[in-house]
Amino acid sequence: MTKITISRFDVAEYLTDDALINAYLNELLSEGTPQDFIHALNDVARARGMNDLAQKTGIRRESLYKTLQSEKPRFDTMLKIIDAMGLQVTLTPKPNHA
User: What are the residue ranges in the chain where pLDDT is below 70?
Assistant: First the structure.
C-alpha cells in the first residue's frame, strides 16, 4: 500500500513577484469581501516577510498578525501596511455605473 502525504496549500508560497501580488490583491479587492481582502494582505505579508513589514510600518510583528486576522482592522493601519508593501490604493469608476 502506498502512503500518500497531503500538505496544506499556502498561497503565500506562490506570491513570488510584484505583478502577481498586485493582481492577487486587486482581484480580491474588486471581487471579494472586505474579509477576503484582509486575508489576502495577510498572505502577501507572510510572502514578503512579516519582520520586514513590521520594521517598515513601525508596528510590532505580533500586532501585525492580529491586525491582519481581525474582522475590522483600522483603515489607517491598513493604509500603513499597504504603503509599506510599496502599494497604493486608487479609485476608478465602475463600468456602467449610473
Answer: 97-98
Q: What pLDDT is recorded for position 24? A: 96
Pairwise CA distance, residues 85 & 77, whole Å: 12
With b for 16 or more beta-carbon neighbours within 10 A and e for fewer, the 42-60 pattern comes to bbbbbbbebeebbebbebe
- Nearest alpha-carbon partner for 57 in 13, 48, 43, 39: 48
Of 27, 45, 47, whose CA–CA distance to 83 is shortest? 45
pTM (two decimals): 0.84
In the structure grid, which three cell numbers stand for residue 53, read together? 513589514
Look-up: residue for cell 497531503?
Answer: 6
